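hiii, so i know i said id send this last week but things got crazy w the move. better late than never?? heres the sequnce for the chain we talked about at the cafe, plus the structure i predicted for it. fair warning i was half asleep when i ran it
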Amino acid sequence: SHNLPSVVNLCQRALHLENGRIEDIGNASRVVNHYLSKHQKNLHLQRWDHLSEAPGNNFVRIHFVELIPHLDKVNDPIDIRTRFTVRFKFWNLIPEQNICVGLHLFTLGRECVFDISSTPQEFSKGLVEGQCEIPGNFLNDGSYYFSLIFVRDTSVELFYFEECLTMEVEDYRVNMNWYGKWSGYVRPKFPFRVRQVASETEAV
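okay and structure toks below
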């Protein structure tokens, strides 16, 4: 799957074959993301309670990372209206270490949707927690993963926790006759108004 970004970057159209049968054909980005979503399960929580087993290094180690969708019912799917929280805790292993944490969101085709970071802070040795709120009506339907990067003094990479959370976002449509794929990685619900200012007889 690490070569799939090349397919998206170099090709306009793609063909997905499985056991000699055509599974999908069309826009390269859509075909790649559909292929990856079929072959990768959602991963909403990873947790390590013992420091010795936790991913990381001599600078930081991960206690847990969690994706929390805010749903009306527990079994409801995540769709484009869903807001969610990314939470994490990590052990800072160096006293008085200046750290900022970056949260990266990618499509499963490894195209970056956003790269945001916390304000750099000096932390004592011990557990540190963080969270980021992502609003509803932001992402388009598709498959995504999060990565966390820990940086010291805004310039030195301490640890990159790649693909630590994955999710599938479903489409939601109401009062609409359009059933094709909406373009773009995001589906923001911005205020957008159109109004008539004059009738045909009044128009100049």
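btw The longest strand covers residues 156-169. thought thatd interest u
miss u guys!!
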